[in-house]
Design goal:
Chain lengths: 330, 308, 538
């Protein structure tokens, strides 16, 4: 779908070969990319360089701190709150923030702070896994499709178009309902995996098209032709040469998709599918607050606020990583 | 190139059939009995269920049902809903509204997204950049129904600037706010994409050459830089149109836009297989054609791309 | 260059065609003489015998007039087209005389035959009309609805219906039913013109009735417009020139439209506006509330062994804190139930449920222990697309915290799936049931729900004593006496508790500032003849 890096029509000779392991000693490359003079005696390579660069960016540091705190919430919610997120005291319904309940109570009389902390787990896991799934499937299919071209490309592209044509809601309803028999109550993990699956199955074509466009453009570059002339196997070409260059647009998409997928989970809850009691997620909380946005805005503000901050952190992280990896940004 | 286009058009057919069959099967697979819920809180008389089942061939195997439907479709008859309404009428009423909404959303996301991207891409990192970044992130992470509801209540009920719902056959003006809401996620992406693209190409040699040659800054940016940077953006916008048309369920609900999003959603829930398949068939066609157009456009705009 | 031209050749026509379908349009809303009303797309064709759900019913009530009419204020029964409805001494044979001179919208006269032919058509099984089961009581119904699937009935007419003369016909029932005249205002009992029998399918596109409004036009999934029928003979004349029913998928959107002046009438107020009494502030005089004939209950699947102990059922009922739930979840807009019928219905007796519907944690725990406890997870099942999630969760919490058993709210994704499980007797836990009376009688809340084998007895409740009590009431000498006996039958339910009564719902409606008056009926429909516009300034 998009191909931001590959489309720049610079003349290829002036472009530094982006796969340092291949040709010149890595030292000369790292001297070109990092602003540091010959302080680095040992050649670091692309990834080492990227890391070195990253830890010096404030955006990366801030984002990492936020994400670490978030991951702590996901792994150890007990550190943050001792209140049971599902304990409902109807008499406290919709009370606002107070000393004993920092975020107030929701419609059922449950502590919102506790629910927000516990909700991090489901939301972040759904977002991460769905993004991972989408990017993995999409990238593999996309890069193969872009590299081989011909009938492979045709077949894979048409196959992906079938999925693109399916309405998200229809696919989600079928996946989320047919695989659960009406009698049994599906466990939280099972429902989470099903939500992840429905999002990934219906979104991978987009990642695939991005990767494919980047791969097509990369394939035409001289360094690929050179590698092929030198006798490199397709696997080596794809993994070592094309992939690092095609990664950037997919990364841009992935970091935004993460936020979108957490939001997609909220929309599924809004439509009545997806996660249910006793699983709590920000999406569930946001959709529960729908009727009371005017009467009790705190029901919406806190989970939505956490959602925005999380998405912000991941996107900042993605930006920073992409900037560090992309030699053209220096 | 011509042969490529022809080949793609031919390949449309199996994709089309494949997709429609999968959709028909998916609706069929949704649990539920379409006539069980028709009579309110009571169960329907068995005679009613028997009559409806026979009339809509629901007791026959899936393949038979699908081919009967396909046969009908090729004569232009979209069939009728369980309430006796002609599906063709429903589609003819709802489709133009959705197309209008999608085009408005596309224009808004294109114009605002590209403008924001250009501003931040040219200036580089700074306060404006962070501002745009954060506001686009807000739009991405807030679910559509929240953005829609907030805008509707604020602009409509409180300030009275817009009507809180659009009438039937809405005008472009009425669709501006819903279009904004619908396109908000993509707008964020367009802005970031433009920004990224510009920032890369800013350092390219041809830009340096052009400036060195003495061209005015406006011309350098407008003629050379933009044309190259906008290629990925334009191709994204092309495919987004199809996605916008298919995905506007929530926006249509919030603003009561009688488009195909809500129609498909309700039809899925009531297991109206023919309605869902009929609408999605058209959507898929548009999507496939737009994809083809985008692929061709991409090859045209970027001379390095070859399809043979 | 060739590529550019080719691309242009492709792009331009495609873009133009897309824009062409998209461009144009833009209307400025309905004219000033049209009253707009919130509505939903009907689920069935617009034929009165095939319409038992709310949206289709609303339109049918505007287009047709029946033998009797229910007053929008309190649902009391008044003759409309009927001159007289005379029962035989044993209340089994009714002689119905209709007023002469009434016409359908196409000018043809309404005769006794219009009624009899319509009723025969609806009751005839192979026609597949949803309202057919309302003629169960009439002699000859079984012949028109044979049990074996695929069997074709030998006759198309109910033997119990006879036309005596153009304005008189008789109805013979299988067993005595004193309250039969009360039922006659409901949709399936409307008359039909000859035009219908000539072309039933065409009729669906353009229904022709004998009511205060006539059908104008319809855009499916968008709106339906009716206009005043000046030759209407009934006592309540139509007062506005046109009414447009507008389809809304979200009640909140309809409410916003009402508040901002885009819509004239709404039949229900969404929860978002009930909270904190916002709707009174927004609507002022336009906020209307009256007792309704709607109840909400939770039923037990009595076909499941685990729920067959009445003490368990009573324990659960006493573990539900109804007053707190209605106050917190519904902003006080529900009335906790004290019986199985709505309080405003004719024949209601207060406090039939007694202590079993009162929140009493101590007693509930005692009864639970007496019943031997409950193992495993107790499910509360409802359809996820109906807005029942909040109260179901609240009820689940109440039971969970009072009795200490694991209670979960389990939504089914769609209403049709929910009904399918109900019909197939597949529920593995308690399930939501709700009821809107079809006609204003206590019997409407009892027979169809709790009689052995009744059409809505999804829980398989069967008590011969209850059935016998119903029979006694059906054959009572007068309607007040019948009501008294029905109330006695209701008392039996308190001992068995097959269904836990939760609350009854008032009818809350909203009017825009343009309307001088508009009345919602206790059935939560709009009575179009009550709609009046304020005088418009020229």
């Amino acid at each position: 779908m998009t191909e931001p890096t590959a489309s720049s029509p610079t003349t290829e000779d002036t472009q530094a070969p982006p796969a340092p392991e291949q040709a010149a000693p890595a030292g000369s490359y790292s001297a070109g990319t990092s602003a540091r003079p010959a302080e680095a005696e040992k050649p670091r390579g692309l990834w080492g360089d990227a890391w070195h660069d990253l830890v010096r960016r404030p955006m990366f540091l801030v984002a990492s701190v936020i994400i670490l705190v978030l991951l702590a919430m996901v792994a150890f919610p007990q550190l943050f709150t001792s209140v049971d997120p599902n304990h409902a005291d109807l008499l406290k319904s919709r009370e606002g923030p107070s000393a004993e309940a920092w975020f107030g109570y929701d419609l059922q009389g449950r502590d919102i702070f506790s629910r927000t902390v516990h909700g991090a787990r489901a939301s972040v896991i759904v977002g991460l896994l769905a993004t991972l799934g989408t990017v993995l499937i999409g990238s593999v299919v996309g890069i193969l499709s872009g590299y081989y071209g011909g009938w492979v490309d045709n077949l894979l592209s048409r196959f992906s178009e079938i999925f693109l044509g399916l309405p998200f809601v229809l696919g989600a309803i079928v996946i989320l309902t047919t695989f659960n028999s009406p009698q049994e109550i599906p466990s939280g993990t099972r429902v989470i995996m099903q939500v992840v699956t429905s999002i990934a199955v219906l979104s991978w074509p987009i990642a695939m098209r991005i990767m494919r466009s980047a791969a097509i453009a990369a394939k035409q570059q001289d360094y690929v032709k050179a590698a092929r002339a030198l006798g490199a196997t397709p696997r080596r070409i794809i993994l070592r040469h094309m992939l690092p260059n095609c990664l950037a647009p997919v990364l841009v998409y992935a970091t935004i998709a993460l936020g979108g997928f957490i939001g997609a989970e909220a929309t599924l809850s809004y439509l009545g599918l997806g996660l249910k009691f006793p699983v709590v997620s920000w999406g569930v909380m946001i959709s529960d607050s729908r009727e009371f946005i005017q009467a009790s805005p705190h029901l919406l503000l806190f989970p939505a606020g956490f959602l925005v901050v999380t998405v912000l952190a991941f996107v900042m992280l993605g930006d920073a990583v992409r900037d560090a990896l992309d030699p053209k940004q220096k | 190139m011509g042969r490529y286009v022809l080949r793609r058009l031919l390949q449309l057919i199996p994709v089309f059939i494949g997709t429609t069959f999968i959709i028909y099967a998916l609706v069929w697979a949704v649990p539920g009995d379409p006539f069980a819920g028709k009579c309110g809180e009571r169960s329907c008389p068995p005679s009613y269920v028997a009559e409806m089942t026979a009339r809509y061939h629901l007791d026959e195997p899936l393949i038979v049902q699908y081919f009967k439907y396909l046969g009908q479709l090729f004569t232009g008859n979209f069939g009728e809903t369980y309430a006796g309404v002609q599906i063709g009428d429903l589609i003819a009423n709802a489709y133009p509204t959705t197309v209008r909404l999608a085009v408005v959303a596309l224009l808004i996301e294109g114009v605002i997204g590209v403008a924001a991207g250009i501003l931040t891409g040219l200036r580089g990192k700074g306060f404006l950049d962070s501002l745009v970044l954060i506001s686009t992130l807000f739009l991405i992470s807030l679910p559509v129904f929240v953005t829609g509801f907030v805008l509707k209540v604020w602009l409509g009920t409180e300030l009275g600037l817009i009507k809180t719902s659009v009438g039937s056959d809405p005008s472009i003006g009425e669709l501006l706010v819903p279009g904004f809401v619908l396109g908000s996620l993509s707008m964020a992406y367009v802005a970031r994409l433009t920004r990224t693209s510009l920032m890369e190409n800013k350092r390219a040699d041809y830009v340096r050459t052009a400036t060195a040659k003495g061209l005015k800054q406006n011309r350098v940016v407008g003629v050379h830089l933009l044309r190259n940077s906008l290629i990925p953006v334009v191709t994204f916008l092309g495919t987004d149109l199809g996605a916008l048309m298919g995905g506007a369920i929530v926006t249509e609900g919030v603003f009561n836009i009688r488009g195909i999003g809500g129609l498909v959603y309700k039809a899925i829930l009531t297991k109206e297989g023919m309605t869902v398949t009929g609408i999605v068939t058209l959507l898929v066609l548009v999507y496939l054609l737009m994809n083809l157009l985008v692929d061709v456009l991409y090859a045209v705009l970027d001379p390095r791309i070859r399809y043979d | 260059m060739r590529k550019r031209r080719l691309a242009a050749c492709l792009a331009v026509p495609l873009a133009v065609s897309l824009l062409a379908t998209g461009c144009g349009g833009g209307d400025s809303g309905p004219p000033a003489d049209t009253v707009t009303v919130e509505w939903g797309e009907p689920e069935n064709p617009l034929v009165p015998g095939n319409t038992t759900e709310a949206n289709g019913s609303n339109v049918m009530d505007a287009l047709f007039a029946g033998l009797v009419k229910y007053s929008p204020d309190d649902a009391s029964v008044h003759n409309e087209m009927a001159e007289s409805i005379t029962p035989s001494p044993d209340h089994r044979l009714y002689t119905i005389k209709i007023k002469p001179g009434w016409t359908f919208h196409d000018g043809t006269p309404v005769t006794a035959e219009s009624f009899v032919k319509a009723w025969n058509y609806t009751a005839y099984g192979p026609n597949g009309q949803q309202g057919g089961s309302f003629f169960e009581q009439v002699k000859g119904y079984d012949e028109l609805n044979p049990e074996e699937p695929g069997a074709v009935p030998r006759t198309k007419e109910l033997s119990g219906l006879k036309v005596v003369d153009p304005t008189t016909f008789t109805v013979e029932l299988k067993t005595p039913l004193t309250i039969f005249p009360t039922m006659l205002g409901y949709g399936p009992f409307y008359p039909l013109p000859e035009r219908f029998f000539a072309d039933p399918k065409g009729f669906e596109q353009h229904p022709i009735g004998n009511g205060p409004f006539k059908f104008e036009s319809r855009t499916p999934n968008e709106s339906l417009t009716v206009s005043r029928y000046d030759a209407f003979r009934g006592p309540d004349k139509p007062k506005v020139p046109k009414v447009q029913f507008k389809v809304y998928d979200e009640l909140d959107t309809a409410y916003e439209d009402l508040v901002s002046g885009n819509l004239d009438f709404i039949r229900q107020v969404p929860v978002s506006a009930l909270a904190g009494g916002i709707w009174h502030t927004d609507l002022g005089r336009g906020a209307q509330e009256k007792p309704g004939l709607l109840t909400q209950n939770i039923a037990f699947p009595l076909y499941d062994k685990r729920f067959q102990n009445p003490d368990l059922r009573k324990a659960i009922s006493m573990a539900i804190d109804r007053p707190t739930i209605t106050r917190q979840i519904f902003a006080g807009s529900r009335t906790p139930a004290d019986g199985w019928v709505a309080p405003s219905v004719d024949g209601y007796v207060p406090n039939q449920c007694g202590e079993y519907c009162t929140y009493n944690p101590r007693k509930a725990k005692e009864l639970l222990a007496k019943a031997g406890g409950f193992q495993g997870t107790l499910q509360i099942i409802s359809n996820g697309d109906g807005g029942h999630a909040e109260w179901s969760e609240a009820v689940a919490s109440s039971i969970r915290q009072t009795l200490g058993i694991d209670v979960r709210f389990t939504p089914t994704p769609t209403f049709s799936e929910f009904r399918r499980q109900a019909n197939a007797r597949e529920f593995s836990g308690m399930f939501r049931t709700g009821w809107i009376a079809d006609y204003p009688s206590i019997e409407s809340f009892l027979t169809q729900l709790y009689r052995t084998g009744a059409s809505s007895n999804d829980y398989e409740y069967s008590n011969p004593a209850f059935d016998a009590a119903l029979d006694r009431a059906n054959a009572a000498p007068s309607i007040p006496e019948a009501n008294r006996r029905y109330a006695e039958a209701e008392k039996i339910l308190a001992q068995d508790m097959p269904v836990i009564p939760l609350w009854s719902q008032p009818v809350q409606a909203g009017l825009s500032e343009r309307l001088a008056d508009a009345k919602a009926t206790p059935f939560r429909k709009l009575d179009l003849t009550s709609v009046t516009l304020k005088p418009q300034h020229p």
